[in-house]
Structures are given as C-alpha cells and as structure tokens.
Amino acid sequence: MDFPILTTIIAVPAFGALLTALMPKARTDLVRLIGIAFALATAALCIYLVIEFSTSPGSVAGFQFVSQHSWIKQWGISWHVGVDGISLFLVALTGVLFPLAFWGGDADASHDVKAYTAWLLLLEAGVLGTFLSLDLFLFFIMFEVTLVPMYFIIGGWGHGERVYAAIKFFLFTMAGSAFMLVGLLATVFLHEEATGVLTFDVTVIAADQAIAPTTTRWLFLAFAMAFAVKTPLFPLHTWLPDAHTNAPTAGSVILAGLLLKLGTYGFLRYGLYLFPNAADWWAPVFITLGVIGIIYGAICACMQRDLKRLIAYSSVAHLGFIVLGTFALTTQSISGGVLQMLNHGVSTGALFLLVGWIYERRHTREIAELKGLQKVAPIFAACFTVVMLSSLGLPGLNGFVGEFLVLIGSFLTARWWVVVAAIGVILAALYLLWAYQRVFHGQIDEPNRHFPELQLKEGLIMLPLLALIFFVGIYPKPLLDRIQPSVNSLIAHVEQHSNYRQPTVGTQVAGK
Amino acid sequence: VITVLAQLPFTGPTVDWFQLTPFFILIGGGLVLMLAAALFPGVWPRGSYAGFTFLLGTATLVVSFVQWHSVAHGHPKNLFDGALSVDGLSIFISIVISIAVILTALFLDDYLRREDIEGPEIYALMLMSAAGGIVMAWSSDLIVIFLGLETLSLALYVLAASHLRRIRSQEAGVKYFILGGFSSAFFLYGIALVYGATGSTNLDQIFTFLANTTLLDDGLLLAGFALLLVGFAFKVSAAPFHMWTPDVYEGSPTPVTGFMAAASKAAAFAALIRVFVVAFTNYKVDWRPMVFALALISLAVGSVLAIVQTNVKRMLAYSSIAHAGYILVGIEAVSARGTASALFYILAYSVMILGSFGVVMLVGRKGDASHSLDAYRGLSHTRPVLAFTFTVLLLAQAGVPFTAGFVAKFDVILAAVDAKSYTLGVLAMLAAVVAAFMYLRIVVSMYMSDPAATDAEPVRVPYAAGLGLTLALAFTVIVGFVPGAVLDFARDAVPVFASR
Fold first, then answer.
1. pTM (2 decimals)?
2. ipTM of this model?
3. B425, A145: Cβ pair inside 8 Å?
4. Which whole number is the average pLDDT over A402-406?
5. CA B321 to chain centre
C-alpha cells in the first residue's frame, strides 16, 4: 500500500475542522454542509479500510497499512500509524458513528454551529488518531487532544450542570493521564537503558520486552490509571454519569460510543501488548474491578429516574464486561471484548440518539414524566425495543454475541467471577425492560399524547445502526475472522513473555 | 602619580567589542530615546517611542542570531577576563529577552495611549532592564551577576510604579523595591560566603576549586548555596519566596507585568543554571534537595492558590509561580537534557505569558482595572478572535497537546524521568491537573457564561497589540506542531558540562 490511507483518515476530519473554523459565522448552512461532508468522507474512508483490510493468513494478524515518518528526531518520536484486527472495527465505528451523531444531534447545536462542528470534527480526528497510532508520544497527544473538544461540547452545548460536568470530565481524565505520561516516559527511558535505543515506537518496545518484569508492573499500573478513568472502572467512574447526562446528544453518543473505548482499547494495546507479563500479574485485580463494575453499574442503573443517567450507568456495566473479557486472557474472551466494544458503541449510541429525540420532543428525560409512548409512536417504540434488546444481549442481536463470547471465554480462566458477572446480564434485562415498560407502555396521559412519531431523518439515522445490530447478531463471522487472528497473536505474545498459558477446552475436560 | 602610573605596563583585557553589540543597542538606544524625548518634547508622533523600541528589540534579536552562529557550535568566548561569557546559554537568553522587549513594546504602545501616559521613560527603563537581564545571563562571575541583577531590578521597581495615577501601581513598586532589596541582601551575603569558602567569585575558578579540593568543613559553602538560592528563588518567584509576586503582578501596569514575568525570570534562571548546575555541579548532592523542595512547593502553591483567585492577573501570577516550579523540575535533573528542557520551557513560557498578559491588558480596559473573572464573561461573543487567542494561550499553559506549552511540560517531565525523579514527575503532572482547573475557569467565563449585562466599555484590539498577539499565538501553535528546530536550539544552548 503506497497511499497513506490511515494518515488521510486522521487528516480529513482535522482538515474539515480547520476549514469550518475559517468559514464565516453566519453561514450555518454551509458550516453544516462541510461538517457532514467531511464526516461522511471519513466514514467512506473507514469503510474502504475495512474492505481493503487483508485477511490472507500472512498479514491478517499484524499491523496493516503502516506508515512511519520521523517527527521529532531528538526524542525518537515518529508519526507511526497502523491498524490491526483489534483497532479495525473501532476505526470503522468511529467513522460511522460521527456523521450519525452529528446529523442526529443537530437540534442541540442551536447556537454557534460553526464552533460545534469544528469541535466535533477535531474530536473525530483525535479519536481516530488514538486508535491508529503506534507511537507512544503520538498516542498520548491524541488521547489528550480528545479532551479539549469534548470539554467544549459538554460545556458549551450541554444541559443542566454542563459546566460542572465538563470540568469534572476534563480533570478526572487529565489526572489519569498524569500517571500515564510519567509511566510512558519511564518506559521509554528504561527501554533505552536496556537496549540503547531511544524510541517511542510501540512495536519496538513491545517486541524487545527489555524492561524487568517487576518494573513493568508499576509501569502497567501507571498506564492503567489513565485507562481505568477513561473506561471507566469502578471506583473511578464518578465523572461518567454527570458527563453523559449533561452532554448534548451528539456528545453523549460519542462519549459512550467511542471515548470510553479509548480506555478498553488502551488496556489491550498498551497494557497487554506493551506489558504482557505485568498484565498477567495484574489480571485478577482488573477482573475483579470489571465484575464490580458490572454489578455496581447495573444496580445503579436500576435506581435511576433519568433515562440518560440510566444508560450512562448501563455503560459502566457493559464496559465491565469488556474489561473482564480483556483480562481473562483467552482468545474467545478478548475477541468477545473487542466485538463488545463495537456492539456497545452501536447500541448505546443508538439509545442515546433515541433518548435525545425524546428530550427534543418532550423536554424531559424523567422516566416518570413519560408514559404510553408506544400508542402514539409505534415505530419509535419498535426502534427503541430493538436497540434495547440488543443492549441487554438478546440472542440474534449483536449484544448477545459479544457478551456470550466474553462469558464463555472468561469461564475458562475466571470461573467464579463469570458466575457473578452473569447476574449482571439478568440485571441488565431488569433495568432496561423496566424502563421501557414505564416509558412506552401504560395509560397515555395528556402531555404525552402529542408525542410525534419517528421522522424520516431519524429513521435514516437509525437504519445503519439497526442493520449493524442485526448483521452482527446473526452473522458475526466476517468480523471475528478479522478480530481473532490479531487476538491470537496478542495472546501468543502474552504467553511468550509470561508464565501464563491459555487453557484449551480440550485439556480442561481431559483433566477433570 | 599619573606619570608613574602611565609608565607602568598595563595590559587591559582584550575585548571582542562586537560581542557587546546587544548592550550598545539596548543601552545606547535607551539613552537616545531619553535624550530625544527630553530635548524635543512633543515633536515625536505617538507611537514613535514604541516603534523605536521595537526596532531596538529586533536589532538585538538579529545580532543575537548572528552571534549564535559564531558562538554556539563549540566556540564560547570569554570577555573581560572571564567576567562575561558569550556562549549558547547567553545568546539563548538574549533572544528570549529581546522577544520580551519586542512584544512588550507592541503592547505598551496601546496601553500608554489608553491610559494617557506619554512615557518615553518607560521604554527607556525597559531597555535598561533588558540590558541588565542580559548581563545577568552572560556573567560568569558572582559579582557581575549581582550587577546585572541590580540593573534589571532597579529598572523594574520603577516600571512597576510607572502608572502614576493608579495607587495599586505605586504600592506594587514600593513592595517590589523593599522585598527585592531584602533578596538582594541575601544574595550578596551568599556571594560573600561562597567567596569565603572558595576564594573566588569567578565561576570557572569556583568550579575548578571545588573539583580539585575536598573541603573538610563545607558549612560556609552550604550556607552560601542556601542564601544564593534564596536570592534566585525570589527573582524567579519560586515558592516560598513568592509572596511579592501576586501583589506586584497585579499592581504593575499590565504590559510591564508581562515583561517582568518573562525577562526577569529568564535572566534569573540563566544565572541560576550557570551558578548551580554548572559551577556547583560537584556539590549537586547537597543542593539538589533544596531545588527539589523549591520546585515542589512552587508547583503546589502556584497551582492550588491560583484556583481560589477571582482576579485574572493574580491567577496568572500564581500560574507563573507554578511555571517556575516546572523549570526547576528541569533544573533539578542536573543533566544536559534537564538544562535543555528548562531552557525550552523558559522560551515557551515567556512567549505564552507575554501573550496572555497582552490579552489581559486589552480586557483591562481604561484604568487597567477590570481584571476580575467577570470582566471576561461572554468575551467569545463580543471578541471571538481575542477569546480564541486567549484560550489557546491558556490551554498551552495548561499543557494541552499541539502547543508549545505541551512540548515544554513534556520535555521537563522527560528530563525528570530520565534522571529517575519519578516522584517529581508525577507530582508535576498532578499539579498540571490542578492548574488546568484554573485555566478552564477563565475559558468557562469566556465561552460558557452569558455576557455580563453591563454597559461596560467594549474591548478594543488595536493593530500593534493585535500583531503582538498574532506573533505569540503563531509561535505557540507552530512550535507545538513542529518543535524539532526549537528543541535543537535549546539543546545547543546548554553550557558545557564538566561532570557528566
């Protein structure tokens, strides 16, 4: 591949942001057009990337479309980007979700459309950069750069306690990154000390594994601080309900759909891949935290009176599953985790869009204020049903595939934790069905009688998400074919550098 | 007697006069400016003082670049028998100070017009002060450092009080003068003790002496270290010697505050590096903990106390204390990499703080008084470009990627981690989080609050100040994206290390 497609994928939205910033403020129509055009162009590039992603046995497991250019020579920093099966679908999800969120949430952009559009496009560039970078420095700045646009989007176009939520979000994440930065630099220097090469290249540091295993435990913890805040893991999750609830619709969609994945993706790429030995050592702690998150998030979700807050807490639970899968360290569990990242992005993104539209119509998200909406808006209710069922993991829809793989994979290495986590599945059904019941069923009252039906535009936005929900639910093979080889090579990498050996189902049965 | 003296063979030190050009430009220019203003008052159109100062600053900058090429690549020169040294560090700080002169001249012009002060003396004093700062950065003798320090400071005391109709400005001047006098006394006593312990005030000779001699009783020397460090810490406003900073920064005319924050800090840090990192390098075991404590306290005090302020000038004053902490983090590493990172930080910080105070100057409006957070409410509606500029400068100070401030913070933490100062690295980053809250408060006020419904005077952005802000913004962003050249520049400016 000569054409630097990954660099282009990052550059297109960044350029769009710049172009938007240069537009006259009064031309909101033009600004919207540019915003949607650049988001769609990025989406097209991302889909093209998925199509072009090679599945030939020789190249499927490694990084593809790699391009590397020296950037700051003094520090051994390069612009190094590449994509493998783990990041591929996250990139695709980013490409797909941004135009939908932008289009579906445009009612929030009631003022200063120009700045709103520019921040969104900049955010997209930052998210894509984080997923694609293979250089520690590049990763760190992309990870950090996502903070600023999100801060402005929550603070500028959010609801309620938006400024408080925005600052809390910013400071929590930045505090996590503080540890990561020091850990990151320590990694680079300790690697230099051991090998004599000053480099920020992830692939080189991961391949060399030159740092003493006991040291890497501390380094892993430094990185994990940042990812645990971002994911968020219990007990560092308290920024999330505030940020999700007060963000505008597009902000919530992107926050839940993509920004949280920066944390779980970070665990895979900069936890397991960079410090395989330490990841194995820490695994019980993170499995436990993940499972606590599953139960805690689910219980909190049951208690919420605000629809958006409910979905926010359900995210804590879902992300707990992904962390469980990641640290259970089996092919199935990690593949399930990666798939679940995609699924959660699709279904929670769709849920936030739907709730955003409810808010647009009724100017409330209080569950108690909504009643019997199914009578007046059956199509809307049907969409909500499918998305909700996907979120709670109904077989045949996408959520089931991911959750099932996580649970079955984790069962081999973390049996009792899985037993506890499975309760979370039941609780998910409880809070989601209960919320659905209260909002869409029941006797309709006067204020809800004029609830408008799903509009064409909204239907068009839902369509790709619903299609993904069914497609992944029924035929996940094309996705797993691309995810699993990379996951396998990741686990082989962990096995090579630690005492961990992946149990095979066969030997376990034979042993019993 | 005179004939006898004349017959004695006297060979004065040969002087490479060309190397002294920056002093000729700054001091000569300042004198010309004073004379012209005094002899022909009222003849000169407004703006000509600022224009002249701008030209002098630019000329110093150009000369510095010329010197850089002859000096930086391994040919440091000594002037006046080793009293001054012209090396990379000297030229680097000359460049920082001339940038400060240029930007301050651009901001001062509008400020003086608005406040209706004629003020040729302000420009002249600033040029003298700049010359003093350059002496301080160039000197390799403790006494000459003191001379530079006093030249720099005396001019600044007057500058701080130069807004004659603002009682705050008078107060700032007096406060700065009295506390500055104390710190100079400490510094001088420190010089005396070091002289007593080593037998010289020349830094090269002190280094040679300390490298070759084992002091059986080094109490005198260590006391000298402590006193010198107090003097420097006062000048760079590192906590706990920072008490004057918020009051003086708040009271001084805003462009002067910017100049003070940039030039005087740059000069004092240069001297600090020369004295401690280079000359006292063999005693680093003894003085490193002191610098560690200074850095830590500065970071904590600067970040935490900045949060509770409601006056933007005071906020920036506290944040400049925190910035001093970061530069000390780089110095604490006592390595070539650490020194380079401190120098890079000084340059980036100077530009950011000058730009920030430029915005504060504009928002201060007539009377230089509206500096509360409320004065910034809704600035994004009334002055979107100005608000954006300030946002970038503030986020850069907070250390957001793709700005010079990020590279600077990254660089000092890099040096700290390289020197295995992990604790300091983590604490410095956490301090950055706390400080970020303060910067965000200003941003919130500009972007997320409705304009204060008052009939406040609108904020004007004149051309000269606009140019200054554009330069500061361009530097901050461009260096944020491609820092390579400036990093090389800072690396080449590091003085030769004898011990590592």
1. 0.84
2. 0.74
3. no
4. 89
5. 12
